[in-house]
Design goal:
Layout: E1 2-6, E2 12-16, H1 19-30, H2 32-40, E3 45-46, H3 47-54, H4 58-70, E4 74-81, E5 87-93, E6 95-103, E7 106-113, H5 115-131, H6 135-138, H7 143-152, H8 159-165
Antiparallel strand pairs: 1-2, 2-7, 3-5, 4-5, 6-7
Helix pairs in contact: 2-3, 2-4, 5-7, 7-8
Amino acid sequence: MCVVEQSKTSEKWVVIKEKSLVLLILQSYADPDKKMILDAAEHPKTILDIIDECKLPQTSTYRKINSLIRNGLLIPDGQISMRYGKNVTTYVALFRNVEINIVKNDVQVRAKIAKDSKNAVLKMARKNIINSKKFHADVGKDLSQAIHQSLQKSGSKSVVPYLLKERIIKV
């Protein structure tokens, strides 16, 4: 279940109560290195820029970044050209602010989705659906539903398909 709350400043907070996603978010933000990575990726950055900013060991940081990408908390945003014509992917954190609320046995996450990450999610969703072999069969369906199904087939637990399914991020 997911709820969208409107604050006085007209910013929307997403309340996530889905236990598996709450656990995924809790585990990620409880890890100091992963939290540092997510904070560094407030705006689109390359993996090397994130590593330089965080001053963490390269091997373990790559492993943690890949985990955050799989879980949908770090989103590919686009590519930039480097020297010698090589293109490198930039990444942005999904959430800008995260609050964790615990009342008795009920744990919920309140989060604000970062502006940069909304566009990155839409780019990623379009890319996944267009590259899907079933895309032409899904065209008759609701586009949000087709994208959700395409992203969910990747097999990993990710926050992104959930946000699309719940229409938090609208296509």
